[in-house]
Specification:
93 residues, mainly beta, three-stranded antiparallel beta sheet, two-stranded antiparallel sheet, 1 helix, flat, binds zinc ion
Amino acid sequence: MDKIFECEVRQWKPDPSTGKGAPLWVVMPVDKAIQLADVTIRCMKCHGPIRLHRAGPLGVPRAHAEHLRRHPGCPLGDCFDGTFRTSPTPIGS
Ligand SMILES: [Zn+2]
């Protein structure tokens, strides 16, 4: 089981030249990200989709995230094979 304690959360930064929001990925602890509603999250290393898990009773286990699909190219995964690769299904900007 993956034990990821930080993730990237997508926020929008206004771009003055286009007037549109530009995506800005912000790293934050999982227990903070879990309190935000309707946000897009991704693994901060491989950019793959992850699922957030709340802390258990008494705080054990800690709030953490796991990849939706195991990915051997991610150093944060539990099956990392030693060679970093971006997720085959990355969440883009
Ligand atoms: Zn990952």
